[in-house]
Each structure stands twice: as structure tokens, then as C-alpha cells.
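Q: C-alpha cells for this one, please.
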Amino acid sequence: MQKDISCRLTSVVLKYIEREKGRDGVDEYVNKIGLSEEYLNDHHNWLSFDTYTKQFEYAVEILGDKDAPFKIGISSGERGNVGAVFVFVRGLANPYMAYRLLKEIQNRFSRATKVDLLHLDNNRALIKSIATHGHRMTKEACDFRKGIYASTPMAWDLPAAQIKERQCQAEGADSCIYEVSWTNRSAGYMAKSGLAAGLLVDIVIYNYIPQFQQIDSMARTFLMLSIPLIGYFAGKIIDLRHTIKTNHLISAEQNEEIDRSMRLLEAKHEELELLNRSLEHKVEERTEELNNSNVELEATLEMVLEEKLKIEAIIHGIADGVVVTDKNHKIITINPAAKRILGWEAGKIIGKEMSSSQFDCNELIAIFEKSYNTGTKTYSKEIKILSSIAETDKILKVISSAIFHKNGDLMGIVSVFNDITHLKMLDKMKSDFVSNVSHELRTPLSSIKGSVDNMLDGIIGEVTEKQQQYLLRIKNNTDRLIRLINELLDLSRIESGKIRLKLLPLSIRDMIKDVTENITAVAAEKDIRFLIPDEDANFVVIADKDKLNQIFINLLDNAVKFSKERGKIEIKTERQDDNFIRVSVIDNGMGISEEDKEKIFNRFYQTGNGSVAKTKGTGLGLAITKSLVELHGGKIWVDSEIGKGSKFLFTLPLYNKQHQVSEAINE
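A: Here is the predicted structure, written as C-alpha cells:
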């Protein structure tokens, strides 16, 4: 038998037929091929080109599916068919690299076909394939090959690639040319790469730096453990940033879709009004004729019905849920999407009030009333409901618009519902992952820190100056990782809503005085002095003492880092209105550019000023500060110019009698 095509490809066909038709299908296939099942499953065996092309014709006949060759090719991208080694190393590769190696892979498994890569970029490839030595591809064999090319991204749990056939040898062309496009997303391989890089550094240090062998064995062990851990954690942070960015993109796309739906709804509403005016005009024109002609009456009624059906078709055709109620919250219209999202039965809910539905609709009614009372064009809010079908919580984004008559009277409310439960679940999974990883890492890091501190304190014996340098390096990196983990945990708790404020009346001046005293030693290293508010600028706010302390520490610590030596940092307090005060933290540092000001409160964002590179932290401090300020009902912003320092401002609620009542209730 000629050795044209490897049985590695034939084994994929066998698996697919067995999955779809069982052992009977496999036996029929083996009989048609004329070779044993053991021979076909052995990847070291080869087939002739004719046998290779005939097998796909047999597969179509046995499975009764003309698309079977393409589906078999798609199945080659499943984990059971790509090989254990590839599954292990795929985190270090991507579809781009796989298509780049396509020619070498083709040469390995086929001696009768040739592949050329005409073009390749991040998510698109142009592939040319041709049968050589006088052979010619069949339609079924070409379909199988297209399935293989489409299945490549599936090895990374991505959707199958899109295949566009430009020309085909089976249809008379001299070669086959396929345009392949696929979707990329972060594969989470940076953590693995960081770990691998850390292990490589360990190997280099251990084998090629003689001085390393002279270090105390325990310190050497800690150092070799810390380097891969730092690499892994740094990579994990990058992966997390990719995930967050992806989630933000998904949310933006969802919001754009909602906006498009609202614009469509508004356009249809305007069309509805036009249709109604047209209908009124037509009815007025024909009123006199109705008394004399039943035929004309039937025609008019038919026209009314047609217009009504058109309006209902427009509303029912909208992909998002739509509910129309009158001013008394009685349901006038509900489309199929809304019935599916809310679990309602249209026949049982039309004409009834919202409060008579299957679940508590107080939140929905509150949104409707808000749309009417505020006089705004639209009002949006996220609500949680209990689905009567799935018996699980659903999270919906509701956008309501009040519809007014031309004389100003309220006609009703049009509400658009979008199910964002899946997006919220993804966000919760992300927060839970960060929290779990941080908890798992904090314990070994604390153990490492304690052990290093003991060694530096001489508890296990005197250490040399060189050993002390390495131990201090381990201690500093461990402290940095612990701070980062603590900040990640804080951010995770805030995002998941697990933080509960213990609100108390607090003197803002006393809080500022305590915090500045605690970080005076750090400021003294740069000869920086603090200017705190006078007694007459003291206010009593309602806040959580620990969280307010964290807000001030983050802002003042940043001010110290970025201030010039022998400078000053001024903290001011002033009344903003009857309910809030405004606190300002002013430094004489390098300042912040307009571009950075827009992103300074984003998670993991750090300014791009090269002159302050040594003072960079984790990029989470200001993000946590913003979240804590907003938890108190305030807001935070920054005024700054390059070379003129920065001024961070935030607001806090004043303590008043209403808070006294709420405290008494809480007690």
C-alpha cells in the first residue's frame, strides 16, 4: 500500500462514527475500507491517497449526513483528539502559532498534499492547499480539511473559526484556497509563563552563580521558592487585567445593544403616534359614509385591525423584553421576550395590575413611578427577581420611559428588560477567584515573612552581611506581595458587596490628626510637613472609622510618595452644602497629566511619568479609595497640572438628626 496519508487522521473518523452510530457503524466502515480497525487506529500506519478520499464517501453513506466530513474535521479539535501533550502545553501557545505551524504539521501527516500559508495575522489566515503527484481532492476530502482548519481554535476552548472558500480543487481549480478567521481572547497563560520564567531563573542562579551555593540553605530555599511565586503572581495579575478588560468590553457591547433597542422603541413609538393620527384622520373622513355604506365600514375596521397587528408585530419583534403599562400600572402589552425573561403568561397578565403578577413587583412599580415623577426621558436601574420557572434569582437591567400626551398628561410607561444574570455571574466568579487565590497565597507568604524576620533577628543564629542582603530582598518582596494581596481582598470584598459600614459620628479633624501622626516618620524621610485644618474647620461626619482611616492613609501616602523633598502636604475641610463636607489633600508633587486624570481611579492603573517610576505601587490604592468614598455616599475627583502638584478632593456626609434616629433603630 502506498504511504500517502497517516492513519492519525483516520482514527478521528473512527471515533466520530463510533460516537454517532456505535459499533455497528464502525464495523460497516471497516468492511468498506478493507483494513482492520487496529491498523486504522495505529498512528504509525499509512493509507494510500485513494483510500483516504474514499473513506469520507463511506462516512457520508454510513452516517446519512452530507456534512459529515466537515463535522468530523471539527471533532479533531476536541481534547480527546488533540493529544495529551498538546493539552498540557496549549497554555503557552495560541491559534496564531498553530496556524503558523500548519505547513510543518501537514508535512508530518501527509505526503500527497502540500500547504502554503499565503497570509497570517492575529485573527486571520489565508491557506493554500493542493494535492500533489497527480492526485486530485474530492468534495468530501476538502470538507474534512475545512473542518480541521476551523477546529484549530477549539483546542483553546474558543469558538470554531469561520471558513470562507475562495476556490476548490474538487470544483476544477488548480488548488484550494481558504480564508480562515477566528476570535481571540486571553487564555490565562501569563501566570504559567511567569511561573516557568521564575523556575528558569532559579535554574540559572543555582547552576551558574557560585556565590549562591554559599548562602545559608534555608535562605536559599526561600529565595528559590519566592522567585517562581512572584513570577506566577505577576502573570496572574496580567491575566486578571485581561479578564476584566474582556468583561468591560462585553458590558459595553450589552449597553450599546440596549441603547439601540431604546432608539428603535422610540422610533416605533413615534411611528405608532403617526399611525394613530393617520387612523384618526381616516376615521373622521369616513364617519359620514358609514351611515350609508356597510361595505365602507367593513373596510375601515379591516384597516384598523391591520394597523394594530402591525404595531403588535413591531413590539413582538424586538429582541429585548418590552412591557407597556398605563398610568395605573395595568399591563397593556407584553412581548414574548418579556414573558420569557419574567416568566409570565400573557393571557393571564394582560389588563391586570403589575402587583397581581407571579412575583413581587414593587421594584418595577418604583421604577415606573420614578420615570413619571422625575420627568426624565428615561430611567434605568438593575433589579433582582425570582424566576417562577427556574426558581433562581434573575438580575435584570430595566430602562423605563414615561409616555406623555401632547397636553402633558401621562399616558403610560414603556419598559425594556435585559437579562444580565450571566454577566453578573461572570463578575462574581471573577471576584470569588481573586478572593480565593489571595486567601490561599496570604498564608504561605505570612509564613515566609515570619521565618525571614526570625532569621534577620538572629533567632536561628548569626547571619552574614551577604545573607542579610538576600533576606532583606526576600522580606521586601514578601511585604509587597502581602500588601498587594490585602488590596486585592479589599477590592474583591467591595465589588462583591460584602463590606458593611459601621457608621459612627466622627470628628474629621481628629481623624486627620491621627493619620498624619502615624505616617509622620515616612514623611520625615523626605522632610515633608503636614498642614491640618484649624479647630474652626472641624466637622462631625457620619462614617466608618476604619474605612475613613484607610481613605486618608491611601491619599496621604500617595501625596508623600509623589511630593518633592522639603515640601508640604495640606489637608483642608470645608462645608459643601447642608449634607456634605469637602476634604482636599494638596501636594507639591510632579502633577498628573490630563490623560492620566481620566484613568487615575481605574484598577491597576499607574501614571506613565518616568520620573516617578521608583514610587510606583500596585495601582489599587486609588481604586479602593474611590469605592470606599462612594460606599459612604460621597464622590472623589482630582485637579492637577504637570509640574504644579495635585489636589485630591472627596465629599463625606455630615452627621445630623436623621442619622441619630437610624442609630437608635440599629441599636
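A few notes: The first helix runs from residue 7 to 33. The longest strand covers residues 393-404.
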